[in-house]
Amino acid sequence: MTGTRRINCTIEMRIALAAAVFAVLAPSLFVSTPPLGDFANHAARLWLLAGGANMPPLDTIYEVRWSQATTNVAVDAVAVALGRLIPISMVSSALVALSFLLPPLGAALLNIAIFRRTHWWQVLIFLFAWGFTSVHGLMNFHIGLGLALLATALDVRLDGLGTWARLALRIACAGLLFSVHAFALAFYLALIGALVLGRDLAALTSVRGLWSRSLAAAVAVLPLLALPVAMMLASSALPGAHLAAGATGAQAPPDQFGIYWDNPGVIDRLGIMLIPIRTYSHFVDLFFLLCLAVPFFLAMATRRLALHGGLFLVALILVAASQVMPSAVNGTWWLDKRLPNMAALMMVASLQPLVASFGRRGRMAVAAALLILSARAAWIAHAWNAVGADTLAVERVLTHVPPGAALLSMQNRPDRHQAIWHGPFGRFTYGEPAYRHLPTLAIVQRRAFVPTLFTAAGKQPVTVRRPWSEIAVPEGDLPSPSVLREPRTIAYNFPYLAYWRTRFDYLLLLNADMADGKGQLPDDPALTLVADEGFARLYRIVRSEPPAVRRLTAD
Fold this sequence. Notes:
Blueprint: H1 11-30, H2 39-49, E1 62-64, H3 74-83, H4 88-115, H5 121-124, H6 139-157, H7 163-180, H8 182-197, H9 207-221, H10 226-234, H11 241-244, E2 259-260, H12 266-272, H13 282-301, E3 305-307, H14 309-322, E4 328-329, E5 332-333, H15 335-349, E6 351-353, H16 359-386, H17 388-398, E7 407-411, H18 416-422, E8 428-429, E9 432-433, H19 441-446, E10 462-464, H20 487-493, H21 500-503, E11 506-510, E12 527-532, E13 536-541
Parallel strand pairs: 7-11
Antiparallel strand pairs: 1-10, 2-4, 3-6, 4-5, 8-9, 11-13, 12-13
Helix pairs in contact: 1-4, 1-16, 2-4, 3-4, 4-6, 4-15, 6-7, 6-8, 7-8, 7-10, 8-9, 8-14, 14-15
């Protein structure tokens, strides 16, 4: 045996897939600073890792500790290595592009490997490049999903490997993926288990058949945990270690087991299933979802749907699991919003609608798929360009911040309905702000301290030195200025805000051109307006003498 399976790929499909890759990369290439939520925070961390943490005055504030994280660090390590050859800003931009490209590319290549042919459906798979979590900059997560799919596609192609060689390859892939992201490992295990379940969906509908194939899948998957478990045992800190130290962010604190339940309504729960396609508009996103759904249901109606039963079944299980997942476990948030991405990518990789597959109709289908994908890419680029002025506003006000200053950041937080229906186009994704971590630009551009840099032990190899760590939060959101009137909220959710008058030099208010749902920034004599750029306002904090420390407790 050759160890690979021959793929039926026409020159037209090679060109179409290359065009699809370019369409996905285009918005990231032509927008200088994409408004991606977490991206600015990731970029600041990579800059510190690449040498910024050794520059004064940041060398007295931040410290690099590679030993404090085992998972979620492979992307950082690769970025730092590349940063020795090219500017780290270029590396960060390339990683952003890969976070959009790798998941749909991996799903398309897995689809090709399973069905041994290229097909216009693989072009439509690239519509999943942009979704709720990807446009919010969950960079390592999406790169990990893409690598898991690529590893699975390689596994399918190398069907001639011997048992032990295949096991060794899978164990190596599992260890690598765990170092990228814990969810990348989980996705890879689900994919391998689904492959072992087999292609025949009918064989999985009987209790006996499902039981026997499930046992075989478990036997195949369990040995792959050996290397990740060894890595965890050797680690000095696991994800969630910062919770044990009492660190909190803007979200509600978890329960005693490190779990937080959001308890959304029925409509919101159903909306979670649309996470893989949701971006900036209900109606536009639904149009592109229909572009995927119509050929699927048409193929089902005409019984011309090619299907990998194991992948399809596991994808349905992931969809069901997303409905009962908590929002956070051990400091990792948006768990309920991550599983739908895995389910969608697995599902589209598991099938091919065999309608308009050959001849003139096939070429028309390829052209239509490329047109739809290009329209979505143009839509995303339009949304990013629409809020480019917000980033520029932040950069302008930050020019007034001197090196070594402590910068406190807040946001006017409108209610969710106002953000969704009345917020500036592109600034929010279904109520979640795209500007959340723009304050971390101050670390790179002004060498300032920002308390919300990602520094969670077990996940990030950057830490905050004392005494700065006393006013830092490892994974923090931007609070509303209304909390300055709420000492109990500060005590439980934002303990670093207790020192805002005594240990911070400036306050940066974002989304300042929209009203806060609970009230505006208090009229406080300690605050002096320095710069107002509409979206961003900078205030100087006139420091006061620290009062006697008083513990805030519940009644």
